[in-house]
Design a protein that fits this description.
Elements lengths: L2 H37 L5 H8 L5 E2 L1 H4 L6 H10 L6 E2 L12
Parallel strand pairs: 1-2
């Protein structure tokens, strides 16, 4: 194999890697968009049992001054209070999926 063939093979391989990288980046962008949409969904009573059952910490609902909480809000609250998981103080203040 001469140098020209070697360069052509390397260029071809580089192009293949670029296409694969572009495809993976496209998938990552789609997943990040989906994650952002999920984080904006309103949490319901039932969701807190799934999110918060490990540490059983109390959730300071009054400090939020809102009737609805998104997953993103919940995670920011947990992070700012060094909680891994939280429980809402009054679970009945959350809307229920059944009430929709």
């Amino acid at each position: 194999m001469n140098i020209t063939e070697l360069i052509d093979a390397l260029n071809s391989h580089t192009q293949t890697i670029k296409w694969e990288n572009d495809a993976l980046n496209s998938k990552i962008r789609a997943l990040k968009k989906e994650l952002a949409e999920l984080k904006q969904q309103i949490l319901y009573k039932e969701d807190f049992y799934l999110l918060c059952e490990e540490d059983k910490l109390t959730y300071d609902w009054e400090s939020l001054q809102t009737d609805e909480i998104t997953i993103e809000m919940h995670l920011k609250y947990c992070e700012s209070n060094n909680h891994r998981y939280c429980l809402i103080k009054d679970i009945n203040n959350l809307p229920s999926k059944e009430s929709e």
